[in-house]
Amino acid sequence: MKSFEYDLGYLQAVMEVIEDYLLVDELFWPINASPPEGEPAFPQLTLGGMLLAEARLKALPVNRSQEEQRLHILSELERARAKWRVNWEKKAQHSLSVRLRMWADFLEEYRSNPQDNAGRYRYEVRLRVMLELLSRECGEVVPAERESLAGLDLYLRGELEMGGFIWEPEVQSSFPREPFWYLYGLLHSASWRGGGH
């Protein structure tokens, strides 16, 4: 599980380069920071990854000094969002298109080989979460992309075995069942469909 310090550190590193990032077309941008000891390397800056870290950070339980740090970084993010609104929306739209293709690719890989790909869902579903978060930042989602996502969701609903929240319980409050229903189930594997275990 990623810690409060991990998400905070990622967002602090993001804020050092956010203006440069919003002024270029690239979706993936390097950040120069080391994660807390024992935790995975920080990913590159992407708008989807930043929004996901922001949502996680809002949910994690904190002590008083962490709460001050959290409020500070969230207010910095909000300032950048307001200052660079047009660039932010443009980046969100571009990011949504790319993440939609990545999500469609994963579901196609699962469709063609459920046995090998069902187990990846808990990780890959972060792409669907990013799509939800990005769509809120876009201003207006392109109708063709909205239709494409609706089609993918329809397929996914038929494949999910619904159950409890599949990520760490500490972050659940940021991801309620609606609209994040896809975080409350796992994909069937081929053996499950065949009436196996």
Quick structural overview:
The protein has 197 residues and is mainly α. It has helices at 4-22, 47-59, 64-83, 85-112, 114-117, 121-124, 126-135, 143-159, 190-193, and strands at 160-162, 185-187.
> How far do the termini sit from each other?
28 Å
Beta-strand proportion: under 5%
Structural class: mainly alpha
Please give the share of residues in helix. Answer: 55-70%
Mean pLDDT: 93
Uncertain segments of ≥5 residues (pLDDT<50)? 191-197
Q: What general outline do the C-alpha atoms trace?
A: globular
- Work out the count of structural domains: 1
Cα-based radius of gyration, to the nearest Å: 18 Å
* Spatial strand sequence of the major β-sheet: 1-2
Oligomer: single chain
Helix-strand sequence: HHHHHHHHEEH
User: How many helix segments?
Assistant: 9
Largest sheet: 2 strands, antiparallel
Please provide the count of β strands.
2
Task: Please tell me about this protein's structure.
The chain has helices at 4-22, 47-59, 64-83, 85-112, 114-117, 121-124, 126-135, 143-159, 190-193; strands spanning 160-162, 185-187. It is mainly alpha-helical and 197 residues long. It has one domain. A two-stranded antiparallel ribbon has the order 1-2. The longest helix is centred in the middle third of the chain and has 28 residues, at 85-112. The chain is globular and about 45 Å long.
